[in-house]
Amino acid sequence: MEEITIHEFDFSLINEFFTELERQGPGSSEETIRALGFIGNLSNKTKIADLGCGTGAQTMVLAQNTEATITALDLYAGSIDKLNATARKLGLQNRVKGIVGSMDNLPFQNEEFDLIWSEGAIANIGFEKGLNHWKGFLKKDGYIAVTYESWFTDERPAEIEKWWLDAVPEIGTIGYNISIMQKTGYIPVAVFILPENCWIDNYFVPQKARQEEFLKKHAGNKTVENMIEFMRREADLYSKYKQYYGYVFYIGKKM
Ligand code: SAM
Questions:
Q1: What residues pair up with 191 in beta bridges, in sequence order?
Q2: Whose C-alpha lies nearest to ligand 1, atom 11?
Q3: Least crowded by CB within 10 Å, which of 2, 140, 217, 219?
Q4: Is 75 in the pocket of ligand 1 (CB under 6 A)?
Q5: How far apart are CA 32 and CA 28, in angstroms?
Q6: Digit-coded pLDDT (tens) for 140-162
Q7: pLDDT tens digit string along 3-30?
Q8: By C-alpha distance, which of 238, 199, 244, 243 is closest to 26?
Q9: Which CATH architecture has domain 23-196+243-254?
């Protein structure tokens, strides 16, 4: 049987599925706060950009644990509407602003930000390309903090290798990704692996009820059935091969 790949699904269908969930990728408040602990010189003058922010789970954590002003950007307008509504609900609207835009063509000034954040999103434009493009928007000595899919070992079973090479063609090992950070002009400050609960409790488990609901809502729609099958396979593969890969937080300082 021909394997289904993520590239076959419509961007808006994937987002329609995920915007009803609190998070759109693996992660947790605890790990966002852990990464924030490596960033120096935070103050009420700090300006943060959160790229590929989704509905803003990590944006709100950043806002609640700093005094910074945050611009959160995502390509999907539905996510940005939700993010701005949450910011208003939490009384954070004066410091948190969601805008629609693409992270490969940022609508910002040169050296505008002290910190660029991005969880689970840089693969959409590529790790090296993203690090290169975003650097121009960071002040000297500014920080970058991104999570990115990475191999934990130099070799892995063919089944999981094929899956990830299709989803993220430039996926590399942690050591390789650190070398890319250095090559693109950042000093690596900290690197750590997101724990399993970020995937299981915060990503795969909440998807289950939404999958049932989505299948009912789109009954008879073959694309939706394939998309849910793809998501279930992603979860199965994680439980089978999680010792070989995961999301890694890469934190660097612009040289
Ligand atoms: N950061 C959120 C989180 O961790 O819950 C969302 C992560 S989700 C896996 C990836 C996000 O990247 C989606 O919200 C998607 O709309 C966004 N995205 C994809 N391509 C993009 C682009 N070119 N520019 C901006 N956002 C993009």
A1: 250
A2: 52
A3: 2
A4: yes
A5: 6
A6: 999 999 999 999 999 999 999 99
A7: 666 666 788 899 999 999 999 999 999 9
A8: 199
A9: 3-Layer(aba) Sandwich (3.40)
